[in-house]
Amino acid sequence: MFFLIPVIGLLGEVAWSELPGILSSPVVVDALWLSLLSSIAATILAAAVGVPLAWLLARVDFPGRSLLRGLVLLPLVLPPVVGGAALLFALGRRGVVGGPLHDLTGLVLPFSLWGVVIAATFVSMPFLVITVEGALEGLDNRYEWAGATLGAGRWTVLRRVTLPLIAPSLGAGLVLTWARALGEFGATITFAGNLQGRTQTLPLAVFVALESDRATAVALSLVMVLVSLAVLIVLRNRWLRSL
Amino acid sequence: MTGLDMKFALSRGEQFSLAMALAIRPGHTVALLGPNGAGKTTAVAAIAGLLPIDEGHIRLDGRLLDDPIADVFVPPERRSVGVVFQDYLLFPHLTVLDNVAFGLRSAGAGRSEARSVARQWLDGLEIGELAAAMPADLSGGEAQRAAIARALVTQPRLLLLDEPLAALDVTTRALLRRLLANHLNEFSGPRLLITHEPTEAFLLADEIHVLEEGRIAQVGTAEDIRLRPRTQYIADLAGANLLTGRASRGTVMVSGFELHAADTRLQGSVLVTIHPRAISVHRKQPEGSPRNTWPTTIARLEHYGDRIRLQTGQPVPLTAEITPGAAEALALEQGAAIWLSIKATEVSLVAA
Amino acid sequence: MRRGILSVVTVGLLVSCSAGGRTELLVSAAASLADGFAGLEAAFENENPDVDVVLNLGGSAALREQILAGAPAAVFAAANEAIMRDVASAGLLGEPAQVFATNRLAIAVPPGNVAGIGGLDDFARPELLLGLCASGVPCGDLARAALQQAGVVPAVDTNEPNVRALLTKVELGDLDAGIVYVTDVIARAGLVDEIPISDEVNPVARYPIAVLADSAEQDLASDFVAFVLSPKGQTILAEQGFGAP
User: Fold this and answer.
1) Which residues on B lie below 8 Å from A159 (Cβ)?
2) Which residues of A touch B107 (CB under 8 A)?
3) Residue C51 belongs to what domain range?
4) C43 and C63 co-located in one domain
5) pLDDT in tens, C189-201
6) Which fold is adopted by the domain A23-242?
7) Fewer CB within 10 Å, N or C, chain A?
8) Is residue C88 domain-shared with residue C10, that is, in the same domain?
9) DSSP string for residues in A78-103
């Protein structure tokens, strides 16, 4: 019931007769497309970085492991705006890393789709790392021994034994990551800015529209709710019994 | 030198250390027998390369696998050691066929080639029809065969069996032990059997190493261990009288002598175990409930701390265990004439 | 000496105790007024020791939404007259709104003006990273009006949700230029440089203030509004770069 109240509130605000026109407007179409693109890209990036990271945290005992674990989880605790500001300090055009990057390649991460993807990855990756690390620690590592005695090196064991065994948790982690990336707002607007068609995702479009055009804001919110619900329901029925 | 040759020590934390030496020739089976916590699993890990040793060496067919001084450590995937794990550890996400094909794929074989070789192994072990089954759907015996196929398909130089029968219930254990014996004989390399079950060690191994608190306490054949246990612990663990015979409705013929057992269900070939402490020694013919009484002589007397083990003569040579006080009271000595009595409930039978 | 310290501590305790009995006056003010209103708060409390002015700063549009939804503010100071009109037409004003300050736009650039910005014309250069406030936000609407007046079609890279977010990105050098208020550039002197916009194309931002009808502190709220309009209040605002009404 508690979860239904905001949805009901939203439905009550929808101007149904204007809805088709609003939904086909460039603002909405651009934002929807950008949101899907950036959240999927962020999920892929989070998986590419997060899975090896989770494996490292769960399986390799190295100095500074607790520190690294804390750092990885930091975005969960930080307000996203702070995360976005930190990204700006680090990866901005004059940032610690972004400065040299810009001087060498001319690449500017803020105000680009890359900025959106990086911001979303930053805030959403902890969900993947937590779920995968937990699954790895719960896994009977003798299966990996068995793989090794059968001639499989670390990489092959990871690919053919470990990952398939933690597939359900990995799936759940990917969905959580994607959902967080789709809803990402604070870090994105702080780091990547807000420009329709380039960096304005659905949550940003909703926020901006709330200032000026309530009907569009409500329509955009409705789109977000429906897209999220549809994907979560489909995924859950397919392979997410654990979520 | 061919076969396995190792002598190593390693410690895990301050609590536990393992030091052992062992050699196995190709075609021979050595059992590492010991209770839980004796260090058997650590030994498996060291030989398979899952745990580096602190000192000593492990050599297989002349190839050095682990030697800290020579700075050699071959990782598990390049050791050529086939392992049949406790609980078998078949990969739950792969079919039986792909489980068996796993090692071949890791060695670089293509999918169809690996599968066709794997299928030959499954056929050889008579579980070809289970190729498409998932491990969760296998019976204990089927899983054991699949695990053996998986371990042997890559033609390892050593076969390591870690408690291969422990996961099974008592009734299937005898059957699978016989099957296992056949499979072991088909593998021409050295075989190391890890077990806490004396019977398994006696029946499957050519030589037994008893591991006790991280040290080898005794090495010998099954007969050496049973008849001349070197420590009280081994006597308790492995010193049971083990006989073979034929059962029929509660009576067992052992070398022409008739023993009574409580178990009336088992028929045919059986293993009979009688614990030495279950045998009572008398000077005169006893009267009372025990169904099995017969006269014999004392072939040998041995002191073990606060116990005395005595070997009896014909018709059924047995080991009995009594206290020194009893031996003194009965004036027992080598060659003395005695009577033995054993309750039928102490004569336990398993299918052979 | 020791007695002196003790008496200071005692006085401090008395003051903080009496703070609990002070009357609270909730003032909702546009984010661009932050520095000016901080000065007004201190001066007003100095003259009225029994009053505790509490500032609720935010974007004008967000504050309007709060007030329309029944937030318990006593005074509303907006950055834009249209926003104040929305509140008036909802019947929520205790007395007609009055303009108490004006502001002008300026171009903010990172210190040193690396990109060589000279004026509004440079906002058409696509190779630069340029930012405005989003439309619907007063500074965004004014900037667009100025650009249109100057006949410039801007190549914007980001529409920031408020003027402070825009300033931060200019300050960090992530943007080559942004259009903000003159008062913002003064508040961040040294952190950003100002490129002036000529008066012909520079619209005047007018800040209205009003007492809200639902407040229980009508008299006190009127006093505060009168203080803002008084010469003393106007001086404080002028120090922050605001113009007279």
Assistant:
1) none
2) 151
3) 5-102+206-239
4) yes
5) 889 999 999 999 9
6) MetI-like fold (1.10.3720)
7) N
8) yes
9) S-HHHHHHHHHHHHSTTSTTHHHHHH
